[in-house]
Task: inverse folding
């Protein structure tokens, strides 16, 4: 057998020269093997295989996504949504595709709820049979692998081709989608999607939706008033992004750590204190002073003061927002605002303490809510996939769900095997 050749660009469905019909058959057979119990079948892009694993924890291959918003509730929600402002851009750039009878344009929010689905009436009628309609929930935990839902899950533009869809009813479609972000804060607003036939599996459709998302973000940057308060995005990323005075600055690892530490100590910190937060007992004062000096040159004296080192402006941090939402009892909003741990690649003691504290608070709040949807969201995130206690809580709320029961049993066995003999 020859070695399998996968696309050079992992976000594209096909490599130039691929036979689409043969690819559909290959992936279709892989899908059958996956549903039969093969954990990671061959002939798969890793982004799709990972999505199947996430999807299988919550949906079956013949499930239909639920409709969560309808009528007046849908109209009120989407008219107030930030993406309503860029619908003219979406229609201008993608409307031609949506009107040709073979494609649809869809826009969803950050939860995967479809807000607009537009196209030729005959195409829309075909899509309605699988609930690809405004108000339906198309994130992975409700619809399985699909372009808008998976684009939200991985925060990247991609294509999903035919049998790569997890759900059988969706496998006759091919789609390309790209996430759209708030240009001021980097927060995920939703995704723009084009859905149609197999001919969409080409580099041009992916480039088009990506360019459309960028155009929308550029428009929002111009019309949305940039908050005067500097904003730091540090959750779910190893390098923080500082939005300040109309510009965005991507910081290196150490500067990201220093900035986050300074935001939680508005009273200021000495070089020795910051050094201990960064390096623990293995601190080198010269290295700390050099890093702080470089950070001050990046931020400017109008933002960073010294003696002690402190921020001269009230800086908003995404981690702080999650903490405030938890204090207000708004667990669902806190989970939505939480894309991942605080600077997850950092091993600095001070950052590790902050990260662990926020993670524990959010996890405890989700567990205390006892809400099946919140537990689903937690388990569908990368950090929750192997959380046995959360799976047990979810299984208790869904006793008839065989997937949850199997996952609890599998994790119980796995953790039991990993317990050191001296602990037994």
Result:
């Amino acid at each position: 057998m020859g070695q399998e050749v996968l696309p050079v660009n992992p976000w594209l469905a096909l490599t130039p020269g691929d036979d689409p019909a043969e690819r559909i058959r290959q992936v279709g057979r892989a899908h059958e093997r996956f549903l039969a119990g093969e954990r990671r079948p061959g002939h798969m892009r890793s982004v799709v295989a990972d999505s199947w694993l996430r999807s299988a924890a919550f949906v079956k291959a013949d499930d239909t996504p639920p409709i969560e918003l309808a009528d007046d509730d849908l109209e009120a929600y989407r008219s107030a949504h930030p993406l309503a402002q860029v619908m003219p851009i979406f229609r201008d750039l993608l409307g031609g595709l949506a009107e040709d009878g073979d494609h649809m344009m869809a826009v969803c929010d950050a939860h995967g709820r479809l807000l607009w689905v537009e196209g030729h009436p005959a195409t829309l009628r075909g899509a309605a049979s699988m609930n690809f309609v405004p108000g339906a929930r198309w994130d992975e935990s409700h619809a399985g692998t699909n372009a808008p839902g998976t684009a939200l899950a991985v925060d990247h533009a991609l294509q999903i081709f035919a049998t790569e869809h997890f759900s059988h009813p969706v496998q006759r479609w091919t789609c390309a989608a790209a996430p759209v972000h708030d240009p001021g804060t980097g927060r995920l607003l939703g995704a723009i999607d084009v859905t149609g036939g197999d001919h969409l599996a080409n580099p041009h459709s992916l480039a088009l939706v990506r360019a459309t998302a960028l155009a929308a973000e550029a428009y929002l940057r111009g019309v949305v008033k940039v908050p005067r308060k500097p904003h730091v995005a540090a959750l779910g990323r190893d390098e923080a992004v500082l939005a300040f005075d109309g510009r965005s600055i991507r910081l290196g690892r150490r500067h990201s750590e220093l900035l986050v530490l300074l935001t939680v100590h508005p009273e200021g910190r000495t070089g020795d204190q910051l050094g201990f937060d960064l390096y623990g007992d293995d601190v080198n004062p010269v290295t700390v002073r050099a890093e702080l000096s470089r950070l001050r040159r990046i931020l400017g004296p109008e933002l960073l003061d010294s003696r002690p080192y402190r921020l001269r402006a009230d800086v908003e941090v995404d981690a702080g927002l999650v903490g405030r939402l938890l204090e207000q009892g708004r667990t669902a909003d806190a989970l939505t605002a939480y894309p991942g741990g605080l600077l997850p690649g950092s091993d600095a003691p001070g950052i590790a303490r902050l990260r662990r504290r926020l993670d524990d608070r959010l996890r405890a709040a989700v567990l205390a809510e006892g809400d099946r949807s919140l537990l689903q969201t937690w388990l569908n995130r990368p950090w929750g996939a192997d959380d046995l206690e959360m799976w047990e809580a979810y299984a208790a709320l869904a006793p008839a769900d065989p997937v949850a029961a199997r996952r609890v049993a599998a994790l119980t066995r796995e953790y039991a095997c990993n317990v050191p003999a001296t602990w037994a």
